[in-house]
C-alpha cells in the first residue's frame, strides 16, 4: 500500500489507503511509537542510522501495520528546515512543557515522513542477445551503471516474481522483478523485466513496493508505457543539496536526543511479511546464536541462496538487527555493520574495501573469493575459513540457554495472543528487544568493570553478562579487542573449554 503525501495530490498510480479505525489502530493492531536506539550521542550501531557512507544519518521510525498485515516503519530522513515550527503555537500553549516537547517531536516525525526521497526510477529488461539492459530511467543523467545486474539477479529466470534490495554507491535500491510467458520466438517464450527506485535510505523503500509490483506487471503487458513512472518521479523525487554530493540532512540533534529519552524501544523495520524476524530465527534455529556473536564482532558475513532473493534480503536485515546496542558511546570506534543486501560480481571491488558488512548473493562463485568475507552462510550452514573464528561456530552452554529462553518467551507471547487477544505485542518486537537487551547487558557490565578499582572479568561477571565463562572465552577476547576495552583483564579461572 503506497502512502499518500499531504504535500501532493493523489496521482493515478497511488492507491487510496484504508481509513484508520478509532483509537489509532490499523487492521486491529495498535500503532507503536518507537524511536530507535543510539550509537554514541548522535550515531547508532543499528542498520540504517548514522552510517558514514549513507546520506541518511540518524532516523527515528514508528511501526505501523499496513493493509497486508506487514510491520513497517513510517520513517524517512530529510531536511529539517521548518521542523521546529511544525506544532502550531495555539496548540502548544495548552500543553505542559513535557507534553509540548513530546507532541512537537511526534509532529516533526510526521512532517519528516511526508518528505519524498526518490533520486531515480528505472526499468531493466532481459534481452535474449545482450542480456540484462537498462531500458529507461529518470533522471537521464543519473549514473546507473551496473544497476541492470542488481535489479535482475542471477538465476531470476527460474522464478515468476521477486523483489531485491541492493546498494548502488551511496544510495539504496528496491526493484520488483516479474517473468511472463509470451508467444514470441524473439523473446524465447519469456519476457523478463524489473522496475526499481533509488533512495538515500532503505527504510523509505517499503512505501513503494506495491507500486513497483504493479508497474512491472504493466511493463510486461505494455512495454514502453512510462507515463506513470514519470509522474511518480516528478512527485516523489528528492531535493538534494546544491553541492550534489547526495547528502540529505536528517533529524536535528536536539530532536534525536528527545526521541531517545521518549522511548528506548527499538524499531528499525523495513517492510516485510509478518513474522520476518521469527521466520529468520526459526530458519537458523540455534545457529542464530552463532550469527549473533559474529554480528556483534562486526564480521563480514555473506549469505548465499538461490532465487528468490527477497526473502534472503530480509535475512540480511534481520542479521543486522542482532547487533543493536543502545548504550550511548558504545561502539563508536568499531566498524559499522552495513547491510549491502544483494551483491553480484560487479560488487567485488566495493566489498574488498569493507571492514564489516552483511550481504546476500545468488552467485556461487563468491564462495571461492575467500578474501571477501569472514563468514559464508550457505542456506543454514554457517562456515568460515579463518582458523581464529572456527571455535566461535560452536555453541556454548550459555548460547543454548539463551535460545531456550527466547523460545519460551515466544511461546508465552503466542499463548497471550491466542488466549487474551493481545494485539499490541509482536514477535518482531520480542526478538529485536531480546537481542538488544542481551547486548546492552554485556556492554553495561563491561563498562562497570572497566571503571572499577579492579578491572578484572571473573566467572561471576561473565555469567552476569549472560555468557559462558569457559565456552565464550574466545568470543569475549575478540569482543574486548574490537570494542577497545584494553584495561580489562581476564581472570585466570577463565580457561578455554
Features:
alpha/beta, 32% helix, 497 residues, five-stranded mixed sheet, 16% strand, five-stranded antiparallel sheet
What do you see in this structure?
- The protein has 497 residues and is of the alpha/beta class.
- The protein is built from 14 helices and 16 strands.
- The strands form five sheets. A five-stranded antiparallel beta sheet has the order 6-5-9-8-7. The protein has a five-stranded mixed beta sheet with strand order 11-12-10-13-14, covered by helices on one side. Strands 1-2 form a two-stranded antiparallel sheet.
- The longest helix has 24 residues, at 397-420.
- It is elongated.
User: What's the story with the biggest beta sheet?
Assistant: 5 strands, antiparallel
Name the average pLDDT. Answer: 74
The level of helicity is 25-40%
Low-confidence stretches: 1-114, 242-274
Q: What class, by secondary structure content?
A: alpha/beta
Instruction: Provide the spatial order of strands within the biggest beta sheet.
Output: 6-5-9-8-7
Oligomeric form of this entry?
A: single chain
Q: Roughly how many Å apart are the termini?
A: 52 Å
Concise overview:
Helices cover 32% and strands 16% of the residues. The chain is of the alpha/beta class and 497 residues long. Strands 6-5-9-8-7 form a five-stranded antiparallel β-sheet.
